[in-house]
Design brief:
With 145 residues, this protein is of the alpha+beta class. Helices cover 34% and strands 15% of the residues. The chain has a domain of 79 residues: Ribosomal Protein S5, domain 2, CATH 3.30.230.10. The protein is globular and about 35 Å long.
Length: 145
C-alpha cells in the first residue's frame, strides 16, 4: 500500500453527517462488487468525499477498523475527480482479499458508477427493518385504552 506525497485524506473529504449518507443511499448510484458495495452521488463541493459504513455484520471492532483503513487507503491512492460523494460498504471478504484485488474492484465500481450517470430519482424505500419500526404516529392516536 504505497502512499505518495500529496495523497492525504483531508477532513474536507470525509462524509460524516447521517443526512449525507442517506442522500448517497437514496439518490446515488448503487454498484455491487464481490468485496464491497459502492454508492456514488455527485456533490457541489470542491473535493470528492468518502463515507464508510462498516457494520458489525463483517466482524468485531478490529475487523471493522481494518476494513476502514483499507478503504481510506483505496480512496487516497485512487482519488476520484472532485464533486463526488462515495459511500463504501465493505463485505466480510473485504478484509481477507489481497490489496491488488481491492484496488481493481474499487476502480471498477467507481467507473461503473460514473458510467451509470446521475440518478433518475430516489430508489424505492426499503420495506420493514428498523426504519419501519420508527414510523411517526398520528396526533391523537393513542394506543392506551
Amino acid at each position: 500500500m504505497p502512499r505518495h506525497s500529496g495523497e492525504t485524506f483531508r477532513p474536507a473529504e470525509h462524509i460524516r453527517r447521517r443526512a449525507d449518507f442517506e442522500s448517497a443511499y437514496n439518490l446515488g448510484v448503487k454498484v455491487n462488487g464481490r468485496f464491497m458495495t459502492m454508492f456514488a452521488r455527485p456533490n457541489a463541493g470542491e473535493h470528492a468525499r468518502l463515507g464508510i459504513a462498516a457494520t458489525r455484520k463483517i466482524g468485531g471492532a478490529v475487523i471493522r477498523n481494518r476494513a476502514k483503513r483499507l478503504t481510506r487507503e483505496l480512496f487516497r491512492s485512487h482519488k476520484p475527480r472532485a464533486g463526488l460523494d462515495i459511500v463504501v460498504v465493505p463485505r466480510r471478504e473485504f478484509v481477507d482479499a489481497p490489496y491488488p484485488s481491492l484496488e481493481r474492484e474499487f476502480n471498477g465500481l467507481l467507473e461503473r458508477a460514473r458510467n451509470a450517470g446521475p440518478s433518475v430519482g430516489p430508489r424505492p424505500a426499503r420495506v420493514g427493518g428498523a426504519a419501519g419500526a420508527r414510523r411517526a404516529r398520528r396526533p391523537g392516536a393513542d394506543s392506551r385504552v
